[in-house]
Amino acid sequence: MQVLSTQTSYLESKIAELDFPLEPANLYDPLRYFMQLGGKRMRPMLTLMGAALFGKPAEKALHAALAVEIFHNFSLIHDDIMDEAPLRRKKQTVHTRWNTNVAILSGDVLLVKAYQEICKQDAAVLPELLAVFNQTAVEVCEGQQLDMDFEQQSDVSIPAYVEMIRLKTSVLLGCALEMGAIVAETSLENRKLIYEFGQHIGIAFQIQDDILDLYADPEKFGKQVGGDVLANKKTLLYLKAKELATPAQLQQLEDLVANNDPQVKVNGVRNLFDALQIKQEARKLMDAHYAVALKAFDSIAVPEASKKDLRELAAYLLVREI
Amino acid sequence: MQVLSTQTSYLESKIAELDFPLEPANLYDPLRYFMQLGGKRMRPMLTLMGAALFGKPAEKALHAALAVEIFHNFSLIHDDIMDEAPLRRKKQTVHTRWNTNVAILSGDVLLVKAYQEICKQDAAVLPELLAVFNQTAVEVCEGQQLDMDFEQQSDVSIPAYVEMIRLKTSVLLGCALEMGAIVAETSLENRKLIYEFGQHIGIAFQIQDDILDLYADPEKFGKQVGGDVLANKKTLLYLKAKELATPAQLQQLEDLVANNDPQVKVNGVRNLFDALQIKQEARKLMDAHYAVALKAFDSIAVPEASKKDLRELAAYLLVREI
User: Fold this and answer.
1) Best mutation site among A101, A128, A149, A163 for testing chain B: the one with the most B CBs within 10 Å?
2) With CB atoms 3.0 to 4.6 Å apart as the test, which of A179, A185, B58, B195 could cross-link to B174 if both were Cys?
3) Which of A163, A186, A209 is a domain's end point?
4) pTM for this predicted structure
């Protein structure tokens, strides 16, 4: 995908140009550090592509795109504190490299910086950009809270889990695309459709992520296989298994959760999931959300040729071999 | 001051009407709790009075006023984590009553809510409201970082200290007033002047706060006298004493800082400060900022009669017997 590599370099150069002040160093050094840790820059890319889809030059949505990426990094810095995560993209998290107070405050100022970027877009579209951005920011916080709440709950239903990932991760993809669409001043109907597309691609992608934890090719995956299993995370696979298991299998699952041998644990869970056909069940749900996304995308009133890049991007994100 | 009591009840009723969702309870219960802890509501009052000063009905600036109050509460929730403060207004802080993660995340969502309130003002004034609000929010974070940095530094100059309190507490008073002025669509010159007024009133008020810690009438003050001294805080008084002390007095001050007997410590520090005339020195600096504030206020191009309420408010805030 030519558009991906071109726009990624463009975004990386613009992210590198974000000029945080030198002082106070404990406030801004962490931001210089964290914003350069990399990542796929998928969210700001979606904003650029959302504008282009509706006939606006992608770079006209640059500040909205940067705002989305900055917001995403703010949420990662604070989430890492809450999740006590020592590493992010194989580098130390902000609260580990500095301390929790620094991570709280530099995250706070980063959220304000996101708003400063949005305010660089035309005043005519500002109220609509802010409406979707504010709503999304609130929902992302709600999703993170639900995620933390679920860790303490023994019973989490699958609809509740999907709602949690929708809020925590997927609405931001919808928002990213819609902000591009707002900059392009397309119809409200088109805006709703592109938002739906992004949101359901996001849910499908997150379900895929849960599947890949246990079923990815270790060489391609780049993460420890079974990491979620070892961390006793309540992923979609785990919740589905609990739903489908016989009492004996439930007991087996509980024993595996308590098992301290990583290899026995991961293999045991995988065997149990295989017996219950969990991967197929999860794949079905993932495909269903992908289908909803594509249906919304198909309904967008622009020529098919304009849709090529985003259609390819969605396929690229979701056809990984699983 | 009639205007104070009328507007305070109006603001309290509007703050009580802020409708936070019921779920997730761990996200929104802390906000319902914290926003009702009270306080003087001085900042939103300034926004209302800023609008009224320039001939706009105060309630036209209500959402800007609420945004300022919400922002202030966001910053208190996060500052309380960083300062490890167990109490705020004699009630438990959010991180104490819930936990640190809850305080981080509910603070985050509260900051977004502040932006949602601003967005309820007319689109015509939105870019200018956001410009001053964003800049102020960044500065408040910088001020909090400087405050934390200073705790680790042995040498803090008085200009650096004043710059810290300007950022941490005073710019928000200027911002509150200017947002009212923006809603009233007054001239840029008037906006700058009312901002300067608020900022310097804020600095004077903060210096007064430092003085009151040691020199207030305990019955009127409502806080433990010498609280800053007991916490070894680097207040303006302490920094001025370090500047003026002879080597022998410096040694005496160091010994007092290390002393564990509260009464000996507070009385010893007060005697030392009296010998150095620290209260008079601090008062001089406070009066200088009050004078700068009044000079800006005098220059504002509106009839003197319109200025009555704000002039009285400034005098009310700053003439406490010290």
Assistant:
1) A101
2) B195
3) A186
4) 0.96
